What we know:
- By secondary structure, this protein is α/β, with parallel strands linked by helices.
- The protein has 15 helices and 22 strands.
Amino acid sequence: MHIEFHGAASEVTGSCHLISVAGQRVLLDCGMVQGGRLSEARNAMPFPFDPSAIDAVVLSHAHIDHSGRIPFLVKSGFKGPVYTQKASRDLCRIMLKDSAYLNEKEAEWENRKRERKGLKLIEPLYTMQDAQAAMAQFKGIDYGVKKKITRGITMRLSEAGHILGSSIVELWLEENGLRRKLVFSGDLGTPNKPILRDPSFIESADFVLMESTYGDRLHRSGEETYREVVEIVRQAEKARGNILIPAFAVGRTQRLLYEFARHYDDWHLNRWQIFLDSPMAIEATAVYAKHAELYDAESRQLWQQNKKQPLLPNLHLSRTANQSMQLNKICSGAIIIAGSGMCTGGRIKHHLKHNVWRRHCHIVIVGYQAQGTLGRLLIDGAKHIRLWGETLRVKAKIHTVGGLSAHADQAGLVDWYGHFKGRPPLILVHGEIESIRCLQERIHADLGLRAHQAQPGEQIDLLQPGKAV
């Protein structure tokens, strides 16, 4: 009975953990690595295990760094079920299709260059047909349902409060009469935030596997965030420029739309034209509307009102490429929300090309930016960036609004783990090395526990907690 770490160990993306119990093998997540070109090249490498020998996948939530390699897993021989919350299944149907489309396009562009050079052509990581085939293996389940998924393994999902359908995973493991309980946090949200309910607290575990994305920092309060956004909008209006917001299509975009609706008058948003320039985000927003039963009470009321009148009277949905290109002609008065959230692809790169060199443009970063991404370069103060072979000078004002994060901060992570009785062994994943180190120090100072940092390829024996961690 053991766990192996094959992704999101001492890094943030590529979540993938293999549980072996009683001859059964179950994956917790199967996500894509995100970052620079070298990092993302790892996605096409063979899995360090036999996909055909995996009995099931348990998926914590739909974000691509947790779900994005599932079609590749299926393509490589996996034939078992993928268990996830029902809303996550619906979101994956959108996100994996989009990921496959991008894979096909990237392969097509690369092959044009290779053909001219007489080089061997490449295949996409997976196709839209592969993504559709993978979705046939998804099994949607509700929160709170205890389900036996293989011999010796029973699972239950609880609200993680990160995005719609995001789950904390409880696994009851049994082998040769010995029992252990493993709890995987998935990506944890923050309490008292709009739309989703607060993350659930779990009290019992023999092992806890916890994310640590923001283990080295505290988010700004709601009031500080409110004042920060007001000031950004005021500055941009005074400068007569545009506001660009790179946003993850699932979770962050819906949070932004909710906040814009809630503070429409306070933030003087009637003076702007707001564009949601992401077909995937538009589809994901429809899924959010479908699953209003997962909202908190205040958000349910607001979305119910949206059925009678528009959530934002000046919101424009840009579905087509032509509609997106028309936005590049606007020099002032536009708030453009576009993907990708880390500026690694999608329509935001085109908007950056037309705006990042303008002094009166404001770029608002509202989510985590992994090492090696264009978004990380911007928040680290890059003076120049390159897009499609062209060097652009960065003259736009860059803002980082951490209070809109969908991840728990250091205090939230410590508080969530602190609800476990008996201080079970804690393994930290899904965080950069410095973030994990800071979180380890805080946990040791507050709770007297030495948390373990998972290493790539490491195997931990779940029957001997004292020896393993």
